[in-house]
Backbone:
């Protein structure tokens, strides 16, 4: 959990696999800021169109049904363009779908005195760092890494398993495939499967 002795603006990042409660936590923090009568703007990438019709505009939605009105933006420049000078708190969900320029925008916003809350997947379905999120983690004042429940074994899930037709997606299947017959579920490291993933160097030397 973040604490707030920071002077001026700061960056807080919420990560974890799907279903770990990132949107829930982003909504919780933004709602508390609204209760404190702060000026809050909530953004998400236009690419993610789940539950879009719930509000007049669009909404950030969590899997347990909570929603918060948000603005969907096509890219980082659009986000920059919609930012209002009086805004004190900027919340951005699904950050992994933004390009790398999100890092400089988030940094600029924090430098200019805003509280910036960013939520997103830290790892893609292959278990590899996802888009601008790793650098955001490095630059953040506060990092919250959430876990879900592994649907296979009940342990803490840190990965997102991608399934295509019920089978684990291959390593070289494209990361973003909107609208395809695929599904995602949270799994732990041991249950996470990525067929055809090659280890660069063997972990142990072959016995001779
Ligand atoms: P995220 O934004 O990380 O995808 P959400 O905030 O949308 O997560 O959803 C979190 C909610 O998902 C939990 O509060 C819980 O109600 C629900 N959920 C469904 N399946 C799981 C699971 N396997 N592990 C944890 N939470 C789950
Ligand atoms: Zn497991």
Residues:
């Amino acid at each position: 959990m973040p604490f707030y002795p920071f002077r001026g603006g700061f960056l807080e990042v919420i990560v974890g696999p799907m279903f770990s409660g990132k949107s829930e936590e982003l909504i919780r923090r933004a709602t508390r800021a609204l209760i404190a009568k702060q000026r809050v703007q909530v953004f998400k990438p236009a690419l993610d169109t789940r539950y879009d019709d719930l509000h007049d505009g669009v909404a950030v939605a969590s899997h347990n049904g909570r929603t918060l009105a948000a603005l969907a933006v096509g890219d980082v420049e659009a986000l920059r363009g919609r930012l209002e000078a009086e805004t004190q708190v900027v919340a951005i969900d699904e950050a992994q779908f933004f390009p790398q320029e999100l890092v400089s925008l988030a940094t600029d916003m924090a430098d200019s005195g805003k509280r910036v809350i960013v939520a997103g997947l830290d790892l893609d379905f292959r278990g590899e760092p996802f888009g601008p999120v790793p650098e955001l983690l490095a630059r953040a004042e506060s990092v919250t890494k959430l876990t879900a429940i592994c649907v296979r074994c009940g342990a803490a899930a840190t990965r997102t398993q991608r399934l295509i037709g019920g089978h684990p997606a291959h390593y070289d299947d494209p990361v973003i495939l909107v609208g395809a017959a695929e599904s995602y579920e949270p799994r732990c490291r041991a249950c996470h499967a990525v067929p055809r993933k090659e280890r660069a160097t063997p972990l142990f030397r072959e016995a001779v």
User: Anything to note?
Assistant: The pocket of adenosine-5'-diphosphate (ligand 1) is lined by residues 16, 18-24, 62-64, 148-149, 151, 186 (CB under 6 Å). Residues 6 and 32 are 18 Å apart (CA to CA). The domain at 10-146 is CATH 3.40.50.300 (Rossmann fold). DSSP finds four helices and twelve strands in the chain.
